TrEMBL record:
Superkingdom of this protein's organism: Bacteria
Family: Belongs to the short-chain dehydrogenases/reductases (SDR) family.
Protein name: 3-oxoacyl-ACP reductase
PANTHER family named among the record's database cross-references: 3-OXOACYL-[ACYL-CARRIER-PROTEIN] REDUCTASE [NADH], SHORT-CHAIN DEHYDROGENASES/REDUCTASES FAMILY MEMBER
Recorded GO MF terms: oxidoreductase activity, acting on the CH-OH group of donors, NAD or NADP as acceptor
Pfam family, one: adh_short
Length: 274
């Protein structure tokens, strides 16, 4: 078993991390587990972790995280654009681990209806099927998953919800336009949900990463080698851990009175309000 980093400030808490088989989602799950939380590892496909060479199966990822950090872990599969799948994911999580204290809704991506990136992927020519796929995968899944988890948290008058936005939400762009629109929607839904959940002592916040060196990011575009440094400049591509560590703020004791906020993690690439 690996040595635990830091204190176990989330011991006894139950976390559900969606899209957790690889990339940022896995890093969020590992961070929460390192802090002592029991974690449900959600994915849409059992073999999803292998798609960009970041693992084998979702079952294996869940087992590895549980063993490495000495916590309980559970693998849960489901399509989070469908209410019945969301209900099952929550039921399986709570049956195995207990009521959900922390939701990190990471599932999403600029992914076409048939997989891969939409092509074309601009504001005018993107196909209708791809518009619907990107909006559903990002915005609709966020709304439906947060709704379902929030109801239980409201009954218990406790909880933390973290959504995943993107710096794409804050600037007009020709390419990846619908993805940007979906993340702008996630950003504002987060604020609306935070407003509604204030009386219930539930903090809701959004993490908005910039370019991050996940397997999918590096495997789907040309990357400037000069931006792959890790020190000496903030004008670079973030490491996965630099984004994942922010979940400790939003899920842990330091974030108890922080809600309705969107934190851009981009090394200062966007230094304007919004």
């Amino acid at each position: 078993m690996a040595t635990h980093d830091g204190t176990r400030i989330l011991a006894g808490r139950i976390a559900l991390v969606t899209g957790a088989g690889r990339g940022l989602g896995r890093a969020f799950a590992e961070k929460l587990a390192a802090l002592g939380a029991d974690v449900a590892i959600h994915g849409m496909r059992e073999n999803g972790p292998a798609e960009y060479g970041e693992g084998t199966t979702l079952t294996a990822v869940a087992a590895e995280i549980g063993q490495q950090f000495g916590v309980r872990s559970q693998r849960v599969l489901g399509d989070l654009t469908k209410g019945e799948d969301i209900a099952r994911v929550i039921a399986e999580t709570e049956s195995a681990l207990g009521p959900i204290d922390i939701l990190v809704h990471n599932a999403g991506g600029d992914i076409a209806a048939t997989g891969g990136k939409p092509d074309p992927n601009d504001a005018v020519h993107i196909k209708e099927a791809d518009v619907r796929a990107v909006l559903e995968r990002n915005l609709l899944s966020t709304i439906l998953t947060c709704q379902a988890v929030a109801k239980g948290m409201m009954e218990r008058r406790a909880g933390r919800i973290v959504t995943l936005g993107s710096v794409a939400a804050f600037k007009g762009r020709t390419q990846g336009s619908i993805y940007a629109v979906s993340k702008a929607g996630v950003t504002h839904y987060t604020r609306c949900l935070a407003d509604q959940l204030r009386p219930y002592d539930i903090a809701v916040n959004c993490i908005a990463p910039g370019d991050t060196r996940t397997g999918r990011f590096l495997g789907t575009r040309a990357v400037d080698p000069g931006r792959m440094v890790e020190t000496g400049t903030l004008d670079r591509i973030a490491t996965v851990d630099e984004v994942a560590r922010v979940v400790e703020l939003f899920a842990g004791p330091m974030g108890a009175f922080v809600s309705g906020q969107v934190l851009r993690i981009d090394g200062g690439g966007q230094c304007w309000p919004g």
